Amino acid sequence: MLFDGWSYTMGLFGLLGYIEPVLLLVVSIGLLGESLTRQKIATYGPIWLAVSLIALHTALQIRRSLRGGSRCLTLKG
After folding, report:
1. In angstroms, rounded to a whole number, what is the distance separating the alpha carbons of residues 20 and 27?
2. pLDDT band at 69, cuts 50/70/90?
3. Suppose 74 and one of 7, 41, 45, 48 were both cysteines; which one would form an S-S bond, judging by CB atoms 3.0 to 4.6 Å apart?
4. Residue 77 — pLDDT band, cuts 50, 70, 90?
């Protein structure tokens, strides 16, 4: 398996689920010339909020683990 032995946090897997819609938005606006309407902003606002919360949670877990108090749930690859 690629990167065998690395430890993946659950936050990473959660974050990856939100990255796809964000990348689709960037490609559709940047490459395909789509417009950004209020409806689309209303949809992507909660996605960005979720991405921010997951990133904050993961950063706090990493910080805690570096201090020696690791309580994060990890998956071995």
Report:
1. 11
2. low
3. 7
4. very low
Q: Is the pTM of this model over 0.70?
A: no
Q: Could you tell me if residue 9 is left (phi over 0), alpha (psi between -120 and 50 degrees) or otherwise beta?
A: beta
Give mean pLDDT, residues 66-76.
Answer: 60
- Record the tokens describing residue 30, joined without a space: 């940047």
